[in-house]
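user: At home tonight, take the chain set out below, taking as long as you need, and be ready to discuss the fold:
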Amino acid sequence: MPLIIRSSAIHAAGCYTTGPISKRTRIVEYTGPHISKERADEKYQDSPTTYLFGLGNGDKVIDGFGLAMFINHSCDPNCETKELKGRVWISSLRNIAAGEELTYDYNLYDGDDDAALCNCGSANCRKSMYSPDEIKKRARAAKRAEAKKAAKKQTQAKPAGKKRAVGGK
């Protein structure tokens, strides 16, 4: 499959096709060493950019190397990923025209407090590379934290009650 790397409006560099690609075509493998998630976290602790791809239940990742690592995220992708026997393949979801940038939905599911902002520019952009479920989960957690913070402030700001005289005239 003839692919090239060049500048991308989505993020720095992107992977483009030099010829048309038919729907449901296996395009390229996401290659690189398979390492533990713990090793990846250690290795990229201070790095704002990684090319990690989670495998299976997330215990192992591919430390991306090759053409596929340049395929950018889009909320309206033209490709998808499929894991087959520990290998990850990028396949077309639709017919792709020559010169078109290849994209897939990263559907991120972890990343601590990283906003993972999306720059895809699609009409249905969700403004994040996190999966829709992860976005909902984070929104619920933020609401709970805000409610807890508000309750704590309210408790601290409560004025002391007036003392009442007991008995007597």
